[in-house]
Amino acid sequence: MQMYIIGAGMGNTDGLTGHARNLIVRAGAVLTTSRLYSQLVDLNDNTICLGIDELAEKAISLKNSHDMVCVLVSGDAGFYSVSGRLTAVLKTAGIKPQCVSGISSLQYLANAVGTTYNDAVTVSVHGRDTSVVPYVCYNAKVFVLTGGPVKAHNLIADLVRVGLGDVRVTAGENLGAPNQRLVTDRAANLTEHTFDDLTTLLVQNPAAVKYWDIISDSAFIRGQTPMTKQAVRRFVLAKLAIAPGDTFLDIGAGTGSVSIEAARLAHQGTVYAVEKDAEAMGLIRQNIKKFSAHNVEVIEGEAPDVLENLPAMEKVFIGGGGKRLDAIIAALRAKTPRIHLVLAAVTLETLTTAVTLFNTHKLAHEVVCLNVAKAEQRGAYHLMEAENPVYIISAAIDFRMDFRKAP
In Å, how far are 56, 81, 83, 86, 309 from 91, measured between CA atoms? Predict the structure, then answer.
């Protein structure tokens, strides 16, 4: 038996490719969902309407009944489609389906507004707990597929909440249907709108940040708050090996210098900057605005008290823990079985405390003393002026790190 999973585009006959239409007409049976059934049933009298979770089971039951069966799915079968799940189930029954592409909502919306999509980042929040904020911060053009409990208007509200109200949003609702609606405006002007489940967003941010750029110390707004210097920041972040989709925790965030540079590395994730000092929190917010690091969330309070309501995070920097360091480590370990944390110490007392606690908690760890000197001009000469040495203590659980085993 030949099995085809066909992308039916926007769900009407006008949007079908010629190849897809021919297969549907010739098939012994066509399986689809209610959304597509009413528009495509006239192409084949043996079209069966099913729930989405029933498609695979029904297709398997027809294995020996027809020479060809087509399963119709919306959009493009290879683009954020249920076809992947269907294919996996069908293969367990010895059926190897062939996918046939259709017009995706991304293509349809791009054509409708007259823009390209080869230069866009795509993200689906359909049934996923995913924030679009980081994608919009660091990309000039983002297509978003919505659906399920996450509505387009919720995403727009999030953009406005974090300070991205000036980005240009086009919402394509019920694309290809008679009740299609296209709305384009600043995000801030769309907060009173509501949109149906079947809505695709195009978000354009001409001021998108280049996440690969490194920030100099002098660029940060500092005040009187101590700041982790650039060389230490880059060393710490390299030790943490932050991936684009990571969720990162900065305890004792100070001016936010580590948080903001971490946010660029985690440009598809979220950074939580924990700080108890009111002046420092103000500086963090100023720096977030200055560098458009809107995927940084400022958490007012002191660790470990504030950790309870935060998600589990595998990458953690402790720039200030004080006498609560023991409780912080215990709280982090209780929250996730996998953790990679880095602590910076400028005093021997903090270093001793950290190493003792890591041993107590049986955390494999490594200590590096970072000495940095910069050339400064003094008259006709340049002299190397040393900064204070900083001890970087790295610890890990369930990460493949080449640390010695704690006793």
Answer: 10, 17, 12, 9, 42
> Could you give the residue ranges of the DSSP H alpha helices within 114-249?
133-138, 152-162, 230-240
At residue 172, the pLDDT reads 97
> Which residue shows structure tokens 């990460």?
399
The answer to the question of residue 327 being in a domain is yes
| Domain ranges, residue 224 | 217-397
Residue 227's CATH number? 3.40.50.150
Q: Which residue has the tokens 């309870």?
A: 308
What does the pLDDT read at residue 255? Answer: 94
Same domain, 360 and 291: yes
Burial class (CB in 10 A: 0-12, 13-18, 19+), 165: middle
Same domain? 353 vs 390: yes
Instruction: Report the CATH number at residue 162.
Output: 3.30.950.10
Phi-psi region of 247 (alpha: psi -120 to 50; beta: other; left: phi over 0): beta
Contact 103/79 with Cβ under 8 angstroms? no
Which neighbouring-strand residues pair with 142? 121, 203
Residue identified by tokens 């002026």 is: 385
Residue ranges in the chain modelled with pLDDT below 50:
401-407
Is 229 found in the same domain as 285? yes
Q: What is the pTM assigned to this prediction?
A: 0.88
Number of domains in the chain: 3
Confidence (pLDDT) at 147: 84
